[in-house]
Structures are given as C-alpha cells and as structure tokens.
C-alpha cells in the first residue's frame, strides 16, 4: 500500500473534509443537567414501603404521623 501513489483530492473530497472539520470544531457538547436543589418546606410525594409495626408505631399518635416519620428521617439524616 505504501507503494501506491496517493490519488489526487477532488473538490468533493476537500469539501467533505472541510465540512467535517468545521462540524467537529463547532459542535457543542451537551451541558450536564444541573442537579436540583431541595427547597426547604417543599414536599414531594413518594411511595415508601416500611414494616407494618413501624407504621403502626407512628400512627399510634394520631394525625400527623407522616410529619413524625419525616422528623425521624431528618434526624437520622443528620439534618
């Protein structure tokens, strides 16, 4: 292969190479999606599976059991 003469470039080859080089130089890399910051006081609905006895423990105190679970989770998270 080294013995074969290089074929001359045609206009289409040069144009294609130039367009490819331009595209590489001007193509933007997609920005990373910014992480959302938790806003204090805003709650998000989730589905959580917990043991029945744990649920009963928090529900024994009556209304507000979800707030009590949230407070316990905050304490466990060190917040």
From TrEMBL:
<dbReference type="Pfam" id="PF14384">
    <property type="entry name" value="BrnA_antitoxin"/>
</dbReference>
<dbReference type="InterPro" id="IPR025528">
    <property type="entry name" value="BrnA_antitoxin"/>
</dbReference>
<protein>
    <recommendedName>
        <fullName>BrnA antitoxin family protein</fullName>
    </recommendedName>
</protein>
